[in-house]
Amino acid sequence: MSQISPPNLHVTVTDRVALVTGAARGIGRAIALRLAADGFHVALNDLPKMSNELEKVKTEIQLRYGDIKSCIIFADVSKQNEVREMINKTVQELGRLDVMVANAGTLWTGSFLEATEEDFDRIMNVNAKSVFFCYQEAAKQMIKQGHGGKLIAASSVNAHRPFIQSSLYAISKWGVRGMTQAAAIELAKHKINVNCYCPGVIETNMFHEGTQAMAAQTGIQVDDIRHNLVHQTTAMGRIGQPDDIAQCISFLASQGSNFVTGQSLIIDGGIHYT
């Protein structure tokens, strides 16, 4: 579970609205709670099967920050019509859209030579196509509103240098980097900033699932994989927490990042250096 900053009893409520996909748990949950602490009203998205977890996030926002509005919107973000409807519902419920955080994603581990067409399509649909739809539909709404906005998406350190057994995952996250740069160029004239974040090894369910899959494929023990990732790969010698990512998204969503666009922010405790 992410370690979120204590409730801010002096939250300055704004009229700004953020939409976070994949908000039920892990990094998405941490981002939603952090943006609420920053004064954003927050639309929470995930799949219907995550309804209980989303309700818990919504309740936590209400308990911590009573004046902050939040709503739950179910959608499969790999489908454009559902993304479009998600944006429309956000505006209907909360009045506008200022920040789009396309956080939803999935993991794939396996052999490059044994990857199938179905594997490729699934990972690209969830990790890359969904970002394209979120960027595009959110940008249309922001242009209609006329006061700019922030588009932010989940990439990965795998988009800078892939880990072993992660070829399709790396391909999808490289796509997010390229998409972010291309969108940043076209949308700057509308005062829309476009950036992505590249987490390293973060303590989430996805990380646990990934290490278990890697152990099954390589025969290396899960504890040994974790030890190698922390002590041989990461300069800071620890696994990151979801709140480490949320702190950086807080900056990208703020007015302080108005001169930052087209960037891929690495948040990995010292795995890759640029």
TrEMBL record:
Pfam families: adh_short_C2. InterPro entries: NAD(P)-bd_dom_sf, Sc_DH/Rdtase_CS, SDR_fam. Keywords: Oxidoreductase. GO terms for molecular function: oxidoreductase activity. Belongs to the short-chain dehydrogenases/reductases (SDR) family. This is NAD(P)-binding protein.
